[in-house]
Design goal:
single chain; Double Stranded RNA Binding Domain; alpha/beta; elongated; 6-stranded mixed beta sheet
Length: about 180
C-alpha cells in the first residue's frame, strides 16, 4: 500500500504559513507570564516581599498578625514563581489589621441575637516597582456567621482560619489577577 501526499496549492500554503507564524508569535511574544492560578505577572518582576501586618484593631487577637503575614507569604510561594525577599521586593505588600469583631446579625425571639457575624478587616498597601499603575491601597473585609448559642471562643479559631483564607485570596487576586 502506497501513501501519496497531496500538494497544497499556493494560496493554502500561504494561509497555513500565516496561521503557524501567528501562533508562534503569540506563543513567544507575550510579555506577561500566565499561570494556572490566573495570576499574570510581568517577567520583569522577580521578587516579592511581605511586611509584617500590625494589629491595630480595637480587639487584638494574639498571633493573628503573624498568621496573616505568613499566609500571604505562603500564597505567593505556592501561586507564583517569585523569590521571597526580606527587604523590599519588586512587588511589596504591607498593611495592618484594622478591625476584628463580632456583632449580632439576625434577631430571634425576645430580641435576642439568633446569629452573630464575626469579621476581620485588613488594610493593604501593594506596591509594584516595575509597573506603578498596579499599585493599590485598599481595605479587605470578610466575615463568617455563627449561631448565637455558641460563644465566640468556641468557634473563633475555625472561623478565623476561614476568614483569613478568603482575605488572602482577595488580596492575592487584587495584586496578581487584576480583578
Amino acid at each position: 500500500m502506497e501513501l501519496k501526499c497531496k500538494k497544497l496549492p499556493g494560496a493554502e500554503k500561504i494561509i497555513l504559513f500565516l496561521f503557524l507564524a501567528t501562533g508562534i508569535i503569540m506563543l513567544f511574544g507575550c510579555k506577561i507570564k500566565y499561570s494556572f492560578t490566573g495570576a499574570s505577572i510581568s517577567p520583569a518582576v522577580k521578587t516579592v516581599s511581605v511586611q509584617y501586618f500590625q494589629n491595630r484593631a480595637s480587639l487584638v487577637q494574639p498571633g493573628l498578625s503573624q498568621y496573616i503575614t505568613d499566609a500571604l507569604i505562603d500564597k505567593c510561594k505556592a501561586q507564583t514563581n517569585l523569590g521571597i525577599t526580606n527587604g523590599i521586593g519588586d512587588v511589596n505588600f504591607e498593611g495592618e489589621i484594622t478591625d476584628y469583631n463580632t456583632r449580632p446579625y439576625t434577631v430571634g425571639a425576645n430580641d435576642y441575637a439568633a446569629s452573630n457575624r464575626f469579621s476581620i478587616t485588613v488594610k493593604v498597601k501593594f506596591t509594584n516597582s516595575v509597573d506603578p499603575n498596579l499599585n493599590f491601597e485598599q481595605s479587605f473585609t470578610r466575615y463568617e456567621d455563627y449561631n448565637s448559642n455558641q460563644d465566640l471562643s468556641q468557634v473563633e479559631k475555625e472561623l478565623s482560619e476561614k476568614i483569613v483564607e478568603l482575605l488572602i485570596e482577595d488580596i492575592f487576586n487584587k495584586a496578581f489577577v487584576n480583578w
